[in-house]
Amino acid sequence: MSADLVFLVFGAGLLLAVVLPDLLSRWAVSAPMVLVGAGMLIGLAPLPAGMPLDPIENRAVVEHVTEVTVIVALMGVGLALDRPLLVRGRDRAAAWRAWSPTWRLLGVAMPLTVAGVALLGWWAGLAPAAALLLGAALAPTDPVLASDVQVTGPRTGEGEDDERGESDEVRFSLTSEAGLNDGLAFPLVYAAIMLGTEGSVASWGISWLAWELVGKVAVGVLLGVAVGAGLARLAFRSRSAALRVADRGEPLLVIAALVTAYGVAEVAGGYGFLAVFVCALTVRSLERHHQYHRSMHEVVERLERLFTLVVLLVLGAALTRGVLGALDWPGVAVGSALILLVRPAAAWLALAVRPPRPEVSGGLTRGERGAVAFFGVRGVGSLYYLAYALGEMELAQEAWLWSTVAFTVTASVLVHGITSTPVMARLQTARRAERVSS
């Protein structure tokens, strides 16, 4: 396969990324499923030497490509959410209650999922550090591959159709969870790294709790708010017409926002992923009804499709080029249990205990709770966390971890891709029927 043919393959893949979302919208097939399948076919062809398909040999490449993909996706989901979080006055309690599913999924479901996967990893024969890393990498839901079950974009007018927007509590819950759960994933990834490099928890537990769990989260949130507020005021309310880029409709400010927020937070030692998402929420909150939000979201959405295309094609090619070489039945059991048992059970428990009433914002019906619990999509973020951690420490089970995570991501793409269209359509039909009856 010549280098020129690579351009042809990439061009064909990009065409698929452009047309597949609308083409497959009525079928129980998702765009990620098709792209992974196309990548598998590419992997069966004779490829040029030096293609970065082995994640162990090309760990740094995997880390940086998946990192950028997640950053772009987080900015997109942050801009898509229009539900206020920080509200002054009497509405503050109602605003926080509207985010109730998010807090439950973050504070209860995710720690339970980490613990469940880590225990399964220990059962499969992993060392404690490797088991904790597996749980931390696989527990967070993915903002990249879950577009079929997430809020599709910002609403900037009262008369817009919102059937796939924030009036859909399932989509809001899954979108907000995917945007924020990196703030809990990274501290646990660092805990795994410290356990693998420094040994006993007694030697690093207090510093981890103070800085990795609390300090870095606070830094990420504060800097995300600061960057978002500063750029939003510049774009929407600057006294200089030349600086009010929202009036000109120049959407590339969103790229400056995500790069600046991530860079500032990382330089300051905070969590850049969290800063990017909070930055997007802040920009969105300053001027909710301006069409500029939609323009920025469209730019981010196109960038996300491009990077997702690359990741999924390479993942698919790697599947047929040996990345599953160390996969055994315990690895299959761990990945399958996460998708079909651990995540659904943990999320159901989190959402079912004293839930808000279904008729209020943040309330879910029984069927909606089941959908939110089930659709915990695993994806690009898991690949990033694993690549990052393995760059910080050496583990004897590295090949097994890559095989198990690659299998789990692929299985999630398949299972959730097949079920998302019929399940979401059924929930939408139920909501329409409820509106008519009321």
Kindly describe this structure.
- The protein is mainly α and 438 residues long.
- It has one domain (3-437): Na+/H+ antiporter like fold (Up-down Bundle).
- It has 17 helices and no strands.
- It is globular, with a radius of gyration of 21 Å.
Q: Report the CATH C-level class.
A: Mainly Alpha
CATH architecture descriptor:
Up-down Bundle
The helix fraction, in percent, is over 70%
The succession of helices and strands, N to C, reads HHHHHHHHHHHHHHHHH
- Global morphology: globular
- Approximately what portion of the residues adopt beta-strand conformation? under 5%
Instruction: Tell me the distance between the termini.
Output: 61 Å
> How many strands?
0
Using only C-alpha atoms, the radius of gyration works out to 21 Å
Q: What integer is the average pLDDT?
A: 86
Key phrases:
single chain; 438 residues; mainly alpha; Na+/H+ antiporter like fold; globular; cell membrane; Sodium:proton antiporter; membrane; Cation/H_exchanger_TM; Na+/solute_symporter_sf
Short description:
The protein has helices at 3-23, 31-44, 59-80, 92-98, 100-123, 128-138, 169-180, 182-197, 205-237, 245-248, 253-267, 272-286, 292-319, 329-352, 366-374, 380-392, 398-437. With 438 residues, the chain is mainly α. The protein is built from 17 helices and no strands.
Topology:
Blueprint (H helix, E strand, L loop, with lengths): L2 H21 L7 H14 L14 H22 L11 H7 L1 H24 L4 H11 L30 H12 L1 H16 L7 H33 L7 H4 L4 H15 L4 H15 L5 H28 L9 H24 L13 H9 L5 H13 L5 H40 L1
